[in-house]
Amino acid sequence: MSREKQFDFKGFNTGALFLVRTPEYFPEGFAKKSFEDMKYNLHFDFAAWLETWNCFDGVLWKSDKFPRSSYWEGEERDPIEECFAAADEVGMTFIAEAGVMDEKYMQAHKDGMLTDENGNVRRYGRIGLSPSCPATLEYFKAKYDALLGRFSHHESCRAVCMPCENGVVISYDKYTKAAYEKEFGEPLPPVSVIAADGELENKVFRFLEEEFLRMYRALARHIKKKYGLPLMHYPVDKISEDSFFQPSYVHPNRNIEVMNRVEELDMLNMQLHPPLYPNPYFFKLETEYLMANANGIPCMADTHFYHEMAAGRLPDTTPKRIIDSILSTVTTNGISFFCYGFMAEQLPLWKKELNRGAPVYLAYSEEHTLAARREAVLRGMGFIDQLRGMLAGAKHKADLAIYYPEKLNSDYMYSSYATEHMFGLYELFNAAAIPVSITANIPESPEEQKAIIINNVRRISDKELKRLEKYLSRGGRLILIGKCSDEIERVAGVSTKPSGAKCVVSETSDNYNGTLFHLPLDGKHYYEERGESILCYNDGKNAVTRQGNVIYLGLSDEIGRFSLYRDFALASWVKTFFTEEKLNTSVEFHNVYVGMQDRHQFTSCDVYEEEGKKLLLLRNFGVEQNRSSVSWNIPENMRVTRAIVDGNAFEFKSGEALPMFEHFVAIFAEE
Fold it and tell me: Is the peptide bond before 339 cis (omega within 30 degrees of 0)?
């Protein structure tokens, strides 16, 4: 296959999932009309088709090797051929997946199905049989050969999607048990034994990951070697996921960390499936989390237009919130949607409950609602198209990085690290307009990362602890929050104890006993004994201290619950303090609302860099604004060459008032 035909995932791309339903809801001409709309109105580079819903009894496309889905049985049309032909015509890439095993094949290999301890069997997620079963790999190799043998002649066939929506789950099928016994010389332990031993749980699931990866790697190598096409995968993850050890129908976490070990993958496109509620800061955190944990693989995130949102909840129709969602999930590699139907100009109602318990067609039942969504998406994608050239090839940069590897959640078992500690912390720094990123690895030197935040981390590996020691010894700065493990506190040189204080006071207030900000009545907070005092509680004990390059913040739940309380005094203090510490990537943003400086803070600041270029991207996730300004100290050999506010060009002067903006400001500087 010629190199010209390949799709470059390393650049900046935009796209959507393109669902193919039943014949009556996928009328003739729909593919052509839709691809024209995606190309010319929405600026999409690709559309991806995931074989997920209506393919459990066969394929939608015509094949002499695989049974036809009952939804399309007897139909002369081939909807997948129609999609490829439509993509050819407009010059888009159509990325198809052959990731579902049909029931007949699965039932013929029952000994490889997901099996519980009592011998009960069911489908192993989307793929059908367990990864340890040899028939699984055999089936998917044959299926991809059939798919690509039929469609690879199309110009739009320039990439492939790997089987997706599968977590690593425990199974007692004979193949998995045999593989475990071969690996460890002992039988696969019962569930009760695994559940009672954290180390054993990790051992079992590391093994299951390797079995999972063995199958995926072999399939990826087969496709790459035979067809030379780049591969995309849609990992499913929720950063508030709990433990490995969950019922088998739950996708366990660490799905990104597992899949980025498939060296042949060229793109991770994460289905975010919002776990809590539609707060764009949370979407933004999930996107940053993806970029950090993708381990250098190009990545993008769906913009949350999942029909049911979290639990049966339909998507927002507020135009402002739709654009916020689009802007919050853009990465340097692009942006994608679940799914195109959400922003289609006109869509036949899908009156089939193909996802049990989720009547997705209700999202399309009102024409005026659909029209409002479409208008907002068109505007949002116009913004993205303007940012395309600025973001392509850049890296997200911030002086401050929060240490948040995907594996961290497994240390919290059935609790949620993200809910307890992360969402509020991330939103606090965004609200304070202090650029912040996520890192999945402890850096070894400040050249890699100027400062890192470790927030209530209970456990850290010996390897990462040594990296932390080395980082601090080389002048790296550490911000420690709450109660971390004894090993981390030893390396940081802090001594912390629980505090019963009710508020934080400030020497700069009119009355020393006056309150700077209150603490949650039932919250956890701590005081630190060894460092130089920066802020005190009302009982006189240290709430914030400094010791060399280590800053300790004991305000654990005040920070973690920021999303609930949005304490402007805390955000203002964070803005002032971290700006004085020169940990703000040379950016200082101020927003004045109803005469009060920085009290209405819903704006984030982010810096993106590539050689000879910098981009400052401000995003307004609120509504009201009075006036704002931003100072950005760029190197002397650079100058601002372009500035955009809500899609319109303006002349930028550092420190002077910005135009009013509802959505974003982008300031681009070059050497």
Answer: yes
Question: Pick from 80, 87, 47: which is nearest to 62 by CA?
Answer: 80
What average pLDDT does the structure give for the chain?
A: 87
- Residues β-bridged to residue 620: 603
Residue 530 and residue 545: Cα distance in Å, rounded?
8
Q: Is the pLDDT of residue 385 over 90?
A: yes
Strand pairing class (451-455; 477-481): parallel
pLDDT category at 570 given cuts 50, 70, 90 is very high
Three-state DSSP state, 628: strand
Estimate to the nearest angstrom the gap between the alpha carbon of 172 and the chain centroid.
Answer: 31
Core vs surface per residue 242-280: b (16+ CB within 10 A) or e: bbbbbebeebbbbbbbbbbebebbbbbbbbbbbbeebbb
Is it the case that residue 5 has pLDDT exceeding 50?
Answer: yes
Q: Is-contact 171 115, C-beta < 8 A?
A: yes
* Nearest-angstrom CA–CA distance, 394 and 182: 46
**C-alpha closest to that of 394 among 174, 250, 607:** 607
Q: Cβ of 356: how many Cβ atoms within 10 Å?
A: 5
Please give the structure tokens belonging to residue 44.
């999409």
Lowest mean pLDDT among 73-82, 318-327, 405-414, 462-471: 405-414
Tokens linked to 198: 């954290």
Q: How far apart are CA 507 and CA 528, in angstroms?
A: 18
Token pair 């010791």 in the structure block, residue? 547
Secondary structure element (H or E) that encloses residue 553, with its range: strand 550-553
Half-sphere exposure of 455 (CA within 13 A, CB side): 27
Condensed to tens digits (0 to 9), the pLDDT of residues 625-660 reads: 778 999 999 999 999 999 999 999 999 999 999 999
**Is 198 exposed, middle or buried (CB count within 10 Å of its CB: 0-12, 13-18, 19+)?**
middle
Q: Tell me how far apart the alpha carbons of residues 442 and 455 are, in angstroms, rounded to a whole number.
A: 13
How far apart, in whole angstroms, are the C-alpha atoms of residue 198 and residue 411? 9
d(C-alpha 387, C-alpha 606), whole Å: 13
Q: How far is CA 390 from CA 12, 331, 496, in A?
A: 10, 11, 45
What confidence category does residue 363 fall into, taking pLDDT thresholds of 50, 70 and 90? low
**DSSP sequence for 25-92:** GS-TTHHHHHHHHHHHTS--SEEEE---STTTTSBSS--SSSPBPTTTTT-S--HHHHHHHHHHHHT-
Taking the C-alpha atoms of residue 552 and residue 571, their distance in angstroms, rounded to an integer, is: 17
| 74 contact partners, CB below 8 Å, separation of at least 6 | none
Are 111 and 173 spatial neighbours (Cβ–Cβ below 8 Å)? yes
**pLDDT value of residue 359:** 61
516 with 506: CB under 8 angstroms?
A: yes
**What confidence category does residue 311 fall into, taking pLDDT thresholds of 50, 70 and 90?**
very low
- The per-residue pLDDT for 350 is 53
| CA atoms within 13 A of residue 398's CA, in its CB half-sphere | 24
The whole-number pLDDT of residue 245 equals 41
